[in-house]
C-alpha cells in the first residue's frame, strides 16, 4: 500500500540547518514575527491534516472521481469525491486557506520558505484535493498584486476564509501554449463592467461543490484589442455576482459544459466553461492581462513543480516500506534473513538504486523549493533594493527549473517506486499506479516542460546575455566558499564546484551559439534545463553534506543524509557530462530530416 508520513525531520533540517530560516525571517520586517517554534507548530499541525484527513481520501477520490450532471435548472454541476467537502471545510476552519495571504485582507502572510513545505505535504497526501486551494492561492496573489483596492476588499477575504475558491481561465481549444491567439471577448457594458464571452477548456476547479462561489480570472480581448499577446486583458468573473454587502446575488451566465475524463488527478474537476456575456470586471490596465496573469502562472509553476516533489516523496516512502517487507531471492552476498524463505528485496543493489535515486531527488528537491521560497520572500520583503533585485532575477531564472525538474524527477520517482513493487505496482489496490498517473500531468500543464525549458534557455538566459545566470553562479560559489573545507566530503565539494563550472561553460556556449543559429535554443533547451537542475541539486547536496558529515555516525538522520548525498554524487550527478555534450551537439541532427519523411 502507498504510505505517507510528512517528512518533518527533513523539513526542519532544510529550514533550520541548511538555510538558517530564523536569521532570514529576523532580517525582514514583514517576517520578523515568524520563529522556528511557530514554524514547527505550523508544520506539525499541517502534517496531521495531510496524514489523517487528506491522505485517506486519496485513493477513494481516485476511484470515485468527480461527477458532472445537469441539475433541475439545466446547469452543469460537479460533485467532488466523498469527503472532499468536509476536508475543505477543515482546511478553511484551520485557517490553512489564508496561510500565505496578505495580512491587510485577513491572510496570515507566512513566508514562502515555510509554505512550500505545507504545499509539499498537501500534494503528497492528495494532489487532486490540493489543486483547489492552490489555484485559489494563485488567484488571490494575482488580485492582491494587480487589482483595485475595491476589488481586493470584495474578493480576497472570502477566498482567504475558504468560503470561495479561485480559478485561472487561459486555455481555449485552439490556444494552449500560444495564448496570443485566444478568441474570448470582453465588451464594455457602459457601467464599468464587461460582458465576457467565449469557451475556456481544461479549467482546474472550474466548477465544484466545495464552496459557495468561484472567482474566475479570465483572459479575454477587448473589441479594439490589437492581435497577439498585447491585446489580452484580464477580468474577474464570479460564478455568482456579489452584492454590495458581500452576499451572493444572481448567477452569472458562466456554465460548466462538461468535465474531462482524465488519466489521473481524478478528484480534481477539469472543466469546460462557457461564458455567455458573463459580467466581468477589468483588472488593472487593458492589454496588460498576460503580464498580470504571469503573477498567478509563476506561482502555479512553482506549485505544480511541488506536486511532482510531493508525489515523488510518497512514492519513495511507499517503495521503501515495501522493499523492507517483500521477500524475494537471496542477497548476492549470502542470506540475510536466514529464518525466512527469502530475503527482503531491499538487499538487492538494483532495488537500492531505485530507492536512493528517488530519495536523493526528493531531499535535494525539498532544499531547492526552500531556496526558491527564500528568494521569493526576499524579492518581496527585503529592504535593500539591490538584494531585492538579485532575488527577483533568481526567481525568474529558477521558476521554470523548479516547475520542470521537480515534475520530471517526481514522475521518474513515481515510476521507480512502482517498479519496486514489481507486478503489484501495476495493480490499482496498491496505490502506486495512481501516483504515476497523478504525477504525469505536472509535466504537461501550467506550460509543458518543453515550454519551461525554452523559457529558461531563451528568455531567462540567452536573451539577457546570461545576466541572471551569472548572479546565480556567483551565489552558488559564494555559498560553498562560506562553508570552507570539510575534509570528510572534500571530494563531493570539489565535484559540486566542477559541475557549476560545467554549467557556466555550457551556458556561455549556448548564448554564443544562439547568436548564429535560430534553432539553437529550442534544440538545446530540455537538455540544458536538466543539466541546470542536476548541477543545482549537486550544489545543494554539497551544502547538506557539509552539515551532515560531522554529525553522521552518532545520529541516524545525518548518517542517512551522508549516504544519500554520496550516492547522488557518484550515481546521478555524472549524467551532467552527457547532458552538456547533448547541448553542444547543436540543432543540425534535429532539423535535417524533412518534415514529410516523419
Ligand atoms: C488536467 C489539466 C488541467 C489544466 N488546468 C488548466 C487551468 O486551470 N487553466 C488553464 O488555463 N489551462 C489549464 N490546462 C491547460 C494546460 O496548461 C495546457 O494543456 C498546456 O499549457 C499545453 O497546451 P496545449 O494542451 O494546447 O498543448 P499545445 O500548446 O498544443 O502543445 C502541444 C505540444 O507542442 C509543444 N509546443 C507548443 N508550442 C511550442 C513551441 N513554441 N516550441 C516548442 N514546443 C512547442 C508543447 O510543448 C507540447 O508538447 C490544464 C490542462 C490539463 C490537461
Structure notes:
- The chain is built from 19 helices and eleven strands.
- It is globular and about 80 Å long.
- It has 598 residues and is an alpha+beta fold.
- The chain is 56% helix and 12% strand.
- The strands form three sheets. Strands 3, 4, 5, 6, 7, 10 and 11 form a seven-stranded mixed beta sheet that branches.
- Helix 11 (385-420) runs antiparallel to helix 12 (432-440).
- The structure holds flavin-adenine dinucleotide (FAD).
- The site of flavin-adenine dinucleotide (FAD) has 20 residues, from strand 3, strand 5 and helix 13.
Question: Which helices and strands occur, and which strands form pairs?
Answer:
Layout lengths: L7 H11 L2 H6 L9 H19 L1 H9 L2 E4 L5 E4 L4 H10 L18 H14 L1 H20 L2 H12 L3 E6 L15 E4 L5 E11 L8 E9 L10 E7 L1 E3 L5 E4 L2 E6 L10 E13 L6 H37 L23 H33 L3 H36 L11 H9 L8 H14 L4 H17 L6 H27 L3 H29 L7 H17 L2 H10 L3 H4 L7
Helix pairs in contact: 1-10, 3-6, 6-7, 6-9, 6-10, 7-8, 7-9, 9-10, 9-11, 9-12, 10-11, 10-16, 10-17, 11-12, 11-13, 11-14, 11-16, 13-16, 14-15, 14-16, 15-16, 15-18, 16-17, 16-18
The site of flavin-adenine dinucleotide (FAD) has 20 residues, from β3, β5 and α13.
Amino acid at each position: 500500500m502507498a504510505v505517507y508520513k510528512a517528512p518533518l525531520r527533513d523539513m526542519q533540517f532544510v529550514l533550520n540547518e541548511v538555510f538558517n530560516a530564523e536569521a532570514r525571517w529576523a532580517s525582514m520586517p514583514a517576517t520578523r514575527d515568524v520563529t522556528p517554534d511557530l514554524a514547527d507548530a505550523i508544520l506539525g499541525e499541517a502534517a496531521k491534516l495531510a496524514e489523517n484527513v487528506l491522505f485517506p481520501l486519496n485513493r477513494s477520490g481516485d476511484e470515485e472521481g468527480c461527477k458532472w450532471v445537469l441539475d433541475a435548472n439545466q446547469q452543469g454541476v460537479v460533485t467532488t469525491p466523498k469527503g472532499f467537502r468536509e476536508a475543505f471545510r477543515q482546511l478553511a476552519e484551520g485557517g490553512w486557506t489564508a496561510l500565505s495571504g496578505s495580512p491587510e485582507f485577513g491572510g496570515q502572510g507566512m513566508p514562502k520558505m515555510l509554505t512550500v513545505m505545507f504545499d509539499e505535504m498537501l500534494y503528497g497526501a492528495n494532489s487532486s484535493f490540493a489543486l483547489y486551494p492552490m489555484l485559489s492561492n494563485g488567484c488571490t496573489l494575482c488580485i492582491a498584486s494587480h487589482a483595485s483596492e475595491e476589488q481586493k476588499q470584495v474578493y480576497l477575504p472570502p477566498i482567504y476564509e475558504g468560503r470561495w475558491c479561485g480559478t485561472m481561465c487561459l486555455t481555449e481549444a485552439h490556444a494552449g501554449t500560444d495564448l496570443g491567439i485566444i478568441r474570448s471577448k470582453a465588451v464594455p457594458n457602459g457601467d464599468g463592467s464587461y460582458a465576457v464571452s467565449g469557451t475556456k477548456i481544461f479549467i482546474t476547479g472550474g466548477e465544484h461543490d466545495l464552496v459557495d462561489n468561484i472567482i474566475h480570472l479570465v483572459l479575454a480581448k477587448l473589441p479594439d484589442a490589437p492581435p497577439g499577446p498585447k491585446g489580452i486583458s484580464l477580468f474577474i468573473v464570479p460564478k455568482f455576482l456579489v452584492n454590495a454587502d458581500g452576499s451572493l446575488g444572481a448567477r452569472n451566465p458562466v456554465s460548466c459544459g462538461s468535465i474531462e475524463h482524465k488519466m489521473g488527478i481524478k478528484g480534481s474537476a477539469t472543466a469546460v466553461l462557457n461564458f455567455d456575456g458573463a459580467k466581468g470586471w477589468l483588472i488593472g490596465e487593458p492589454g496588460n492581462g498576460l503580464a498580470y496573469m504571469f503573477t498567478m502562472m509563476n506561482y502555479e509553476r512553482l506549485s505544480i513543480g511541488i506536486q511532482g516533489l510531493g508525489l515523488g516523496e510518497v512514492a519513495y516512502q511507499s517503495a521503501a516500506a515495501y522493499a523492507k517487507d517483500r521477500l524475494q531471492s537471496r542477497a548476492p552476498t549470502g542470506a540475510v534473513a536466514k529464518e525466512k524463505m527469502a530475503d527482503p528485496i531491499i538487499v538487492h543493489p538494483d532495488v537500492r538504486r531505485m530507492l536512493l535515486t528517488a530519495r536523493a531527488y526528493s531531499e535535494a528537491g525539498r532544499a531547492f523549493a526552500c531556496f526558491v521560497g527564500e528568494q521569493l520572500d526576499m524579492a518581496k520583503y527585503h529592504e535593500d533594493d539591490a538584494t531585492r533585485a538579485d532575488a527577483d532575477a533568481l526567481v525568474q531564472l529558477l521558476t521554470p527549473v523548479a516547475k520542470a525538474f521537480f515534475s520530471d524527477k517526481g514522475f521518474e520517482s513515481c515510476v521507480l517506486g512502482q517498479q519496486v513493487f514489481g507486478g503489484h505496482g501495476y495493480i490499482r489496490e496498491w496505490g502506486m499506479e495512481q501516483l504515476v498517473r497523478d504525477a504525469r500531468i505536472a509535466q504537461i500543464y501550467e506550460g509543458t516542460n518543453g515550454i519551461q525549458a525554452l523559457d529558461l534557455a531563451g528568455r531567462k538566459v540567452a536573451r539577457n546575455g546570461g545576466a541572471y545566470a551569472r548572479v546565480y553562479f556567483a551565489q552558488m560559489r559564494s555559498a560553498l566558499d562560506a562553508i570552507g573545507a570539510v575534509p570528510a566530503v572534500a571530494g563531493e565539494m570539489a565535484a559540486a564546484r566542477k559541475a557549476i563550472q560545467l554549467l557556466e561553460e555550457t551556458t556561455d556556449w549556448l548564448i554564443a551559439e544562439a547568436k548564429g543559429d535560430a534553432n539553437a535554443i529550442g534544440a538545446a533547451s530540455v537538455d540544458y534545463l536538466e543539466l541546470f537542475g542536476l548541477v543545482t541539486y549537486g550544489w545543494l547536496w554539497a551544502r547538506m553534506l557539509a552539515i551532515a558529515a560531522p554529525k553522521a555516525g552518532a545520529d541516524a538522520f545525518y548518517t542517512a543524509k551522508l549516504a544519500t548525498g554520496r550516492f547522488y554524487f557518484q550515481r546521478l550527478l555524472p549524467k551532467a557530462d552527457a547532458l552538456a555534450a547533448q547541448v553542444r551537439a547543436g540543432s543540425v541532427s534535429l532539423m535535417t530530416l524533412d518534415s514529410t519523411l516523419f
